[in-house]
């Protein structure tokens, strides 16, 4: 395809489709903060999160390294929205003042259930089928107003219905993350293919999409 077939655009965001997560962290007084986020990548057991520097999640993780990362099913998107315009930070930063309000009880607002963690202090979100407990290993200030957080995943929890019985493999036919694409929430669409190295290739009823 030649570049002449494309037009130049200036989108306000570059959220091309990343998983939605609910990150729980520990406030200075021992209470829990919870934040929706989607800037995420992982390699091996490490994950890297992109966090706005003025948020409570960023502040907590520079002081107290334990966190949980919880992946909601798309049907829970309205719960995510219920805390989308809140911050645990007080005062609310000037950059956020027009839209965000301070909320101390994010879990109450979210309408989902805290579930005790085993290796870190902040709780998990019970209704999320996939949950990580993790520990920050390094934080790095970005060139913009954000913080890069590198965290080691210490333990992964999965609801039995998304696990291939008797294995450590998440069944991609049963698991569905919420995908954040240009500020819209999606589930997964049709499967288009898989890697030969997939742990679960034998399970798939895949037939190539033309
Ligand atoms: C779907 C969704 C994805 C978001 N992704 C991020 C993100 O990746 N990083 C980030 O810092 N904020 C992200 N935000 C915005 C934060 O949730 C928001 O800044 C919030 O106020 C942070 O809360 P806190 O200050 O209590 O940490 C996202 C919000 C939504 C609704």
Automatic annotation (TrEMBL):
Coiled coil: none annotated. Gene3D superfamilies: Electron Transport, Fmn-binding Protein, Chain A. Its cofactor is FMN. Residues 16-187 form the Flavin reductase like domain. InterPro entries: Flavin_Rdtase-like_dom, Flavoredoxin, Split_barrel_FMN-bd. It comes from the Bacteria. The keyword Flavoprotein applies. Signal peptide: none annotated. Keywords: Flavoprotein. Pfam families: Flavin_Reduct (PF01613). Belongs to the flavoredoxin family. This is Flavin reductase (DIM6/NTAB) family NADH-FMN oxidoreductase RutF. It comes from Arthrobacter bambusae.
